[in-house]
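We include this case.
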Amino acid sequence: MKTLLERIVILNDIVDAKGGATGLAIASAIEFRKRGHAVTFLTGDNGHAPELADVGVDIVGLGAERLMAAGPRAMAEGLYNRAAHQMVADWITANDRPGFVYHLHGWAQILSPAVFAALKPVADRLVLSAHDFFLVCPNGAYAFLKSGAPCPLKPMSVACVASNCDRRSYVHKLWRVARQAVRHAVFDFGRHTPPVLAIHESMRSYLVRGGISDASIKALPNPVRPFLTERVTAETNREFIFIGRLEDGKGPDLACAAAEQAGARLRIIGDGPMRAELEARYPDVVFSGRRTFPEIGPLAAQARALLMPSRYPEPYGLVAAEALWSGIPVVAADTAFLSEDIVAAHAGLAVAPRDTTAFAAALTTLMNDDDLVRDMSHNAFGRTGEIGLSLDGWINGLLAAYDGRLEPAGRQ
């Protein structure tokens, strides 16, 4: 007889939604509660999340900090966070039942490979999300981080270990290799094959190259809600926008440099460690700071195109999908997985964002051709529906994955 789903246990490094993966973990918890499911959220930080507590999500927080803030403990805890192992293992020992399903989102910042060891007793009821490539790739990006070039190597091969792909130093790369070796030692994907939910179908070949079986991978695109439900008349607007955290990987400085060279108006929506430097260097750029989703709508309505100049291969890029569904063309990095979808739909352009001259030329083209922007806007609004899911469709996909873990055959 099939076991009924009794509780969904979500695990993620943090519960403060500063990034897409955490935001998705939180959104799923809230939606599960709305559907009447019991939910527990195990997190590496302090667990302060009123939006979860208010809907009845049980929150268990370790009280730790992300690696960059952990000081001298970071190197050791990043390899194996014993406190995280203890927290998860203790919770499972005290609470687990056959109808509990476990869903691991982010682990590389606090929970560390230790979380996989703690989850081994419930591996037959575990689901993994691949928001990035940390499950298989030491640096999590399948890229040479100094140049942004995609990496063709097999993770953890001799060539991989010898490659200095880290943006800091080769010593740090070796630490990343050690972390991946620990993950493999405590949870070998060759022996344990939980479902892996990839946010874009193009992630499949990369995950397989890293040792995850093709059969265990399921593409489940992100849930998308547009900034606006009516098409933005992008062809009448003159302002380009960047939305995201102001950090190196997202390339806000590349957007600023291209806009300056093209003489284009640019608005930056977001906050982060690069903000002060960028404000000082680019006085003509409008910095609007971090905004809530409803607050973004009126600003997005003034956009001619959205810029997503990520330095490293972007497995999805939720903000691009949100813009497209609003009728806003997107200029994406040519290494972003969505860039092929965008170009195929004639809904934007793909550029090499580190090539400032080429990036600026793309902006100049869009600035000077209203007809082109109008066509791209209509295509973005009407021809990109398949790149994402509705919130209900996404939740249904997650529940289907959980349901599969409770099938009798899945527990043999």
